[in-house]
Amino acid sequence: MNIGIVxxxxxxKRIYDLAHESSYCVKAVIDSFSDDSRVTSKSxxxxxxxxxxxxxxxxxxxxxxxxxxxxxxLSIPAVIGTTGWYDKLDEVNSYVKENNGxxxxxxxxxxxxxxxxxxxxxxxxxxxALPSYDVAVHEIHHNKKADSPxxxxxxxxxxxxxxxxxxxxxxxxxxxxxxxxxxxxLSSSRVGSIPGIHEVIFDSDVDTITISHSAxxxxxxxxxxxxxxKWLIAEKRAGLFSMDDLINNIFGE
Length: 253
Fold this sequence. Notes:
By secondary structure, the protein is of the alpha/beta class. 34% of the residues lie in helices and 23% in strands.
């Protein structure tokens, strides 16, 4: 598997190292701002992605849509780890379908987080039978993270809203007044070097149930992104895919 890495921050560098450990070939490293000697180009074009089978993009939200369209135009499958662009998902879906692109996106490529989402989904269905429990989501990341809330935090919150009948709205803002019963509060903290903590809290008058995932390093995200890249090109898949498609392949529908 010949890989192109776009965005050579902490995640891009970890993907680079794990790719070599897994005997994959990194053909291109693209970053507009990095002076790292491993960067092969500052821009995305046909020449900078020559001989690349699949791109893994952990760049910036502001360039995400433009980058995705370039990969589609160049007929190069791409795994998108950049978040903060999901409000344009319908636009991207249309562009990918119209131009026979191959894109897989996710707010988190950790297989542990994928298991967390399945657990939260099932737990939320169970809690329909226990109306005395309220629920909230809190996520914590390092102080260099560009977006808030995290894409993973939103994914966790969306699983709750989809499966818990008494919650139908997600509010990510700081609460300055009483929160409405139908609103799920998703709060965020940014501090230090924490790779990522996501916590779901079911609370009643008598006890609290907590479901939590704590990443110890970026290796889980990086190895998951590599696995997603291999899955995307294995059968020459065309369309817009999410991590759910890969996870269903692993866990079953």
